[in-house]
Amino acid sequence: MISEVRSSALIQLREAAEFLRLDEGMHKLLSEPRRSLSVSVPLVRDNGNLEVFQGFRVQHNLARGPAKGGIRFHPAVNFDEVTALAMWMTWKCAVVGIPYGGAKGGIMLDPSKFSASELERVTRRYSSEILPFIGPDKDIPAPDVGTDEQTMAWIMDTYSVVAGYSVPGVVTGKPLSLGGTSGRAGATSRGVALATLELLKSHDVDSAGITVAVEGFGKVGALAALFLQEAGMRVIAVSDIDGGLYCSSGIDVRALMDEIASGLPSVSESSQGDYLGRSELIGMKVDVLIPAALEGSVTIDNVDLVQARFIVEGANGPVTPAADAILEERGVVVLPDILANAGGVVVSYLEWVQNLQSYSWSDMEVQLKLADVMQKAYKEVFELKQAEHLTFRRAAHVIGVGRVADAMLARGIFP
Ligand code: NAD
């Protein structure tokens, strides 16, 4: 039995394959990962105990270039989830027209339960286990849930020590001191904000004063909330794993980020507003809802609570296909993950290009290139959606899957 998240990815692929009239063999080929690696990662804890964790790296497709995708540290990581996320990465890179295939990796552990030196050891051992699989021309990891630029620095160092020389292009989302690019840390969120602005513009909605709720106040959610606030919108609710915060006149997102950086354990404990139950955020009366936590936030069980007119998927896979169908019927517009949160992989690509050329661009150059790619991709998806009367998700999948299938057909099947 496959899991709900993998089944969601396969349903979306099937719909695109039907629209594109892909032959059955090609559809089957695209349904399966190209390569998958499952590894056991031993760790000697600080107390001397030996523990073993399961890790994965899955490459879904390599037809358009090396594989690209994040590494997740989370207790719920499993093979099906990583496989679905790798498939979404393939379509995402194709939709925004960057020359990568899709990959994803992860370790089944809760990083908050480990010391920094334990995290370093487990990251380095995982890196050494997947080492033959990755490389700047093969597969380039990046941060995802539970990992950050420090994790990338450890992977880059482990890879480089084995190679015998520095290989900055093996990962993206690195610290600036190691060849990271300016603008990568906020890139996914900036992309979410750019996509939201395009979405409102194409629906003739003035963004000034628009109300927003953001689920997840991590790397993506917090800065997405900030950028939308800076664009003139009113962020009235945010949440994290421990609860939510509501303020009808608008949360000061920068101040909330400072509170969290200074040790406040959860947004729900801020004195800026009222406590909100974590699950209540999905049903907030707002114009734009941004799920930016994990998969499966809006499901058949809570979709009826949704009051937003627009949903912009900061997370990967936050709306299940069954919920998607109901939202479509109700006229709620959903901007899908593979377009809405592609800003991260776009700037990862820019970082990788700079690493390969041993050259660096200014923050302004990176931001202009990001805006260019996001706006072009949005326009292509919007035009197809309008011309063929599709949802945004179906149009984005048709473009992404179509580009990958074209590349595979051009290459042919070997031998
Ligand atoms: P993160 O670990 O930095 O943050 C995750 C946040 O979600 C945390 O605030 C956590 O407390 C919160 N959370 C977890 N479960 C929750 C729940 N049930 N309700 C409310 N909040 C909850 O992770 P991130 O990097 O911000 O990634 C978030 C999502 O965005 C993931 O789906 C990820 O795959 C996707 N994404 C990330 C990037 C990136 O560059 N980091 C790029 C594209 C997509």
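^ nicotinamide-adenine-dinucleotide complex. The mean pLDDT is 98. The radius of gyration is 20 Å.
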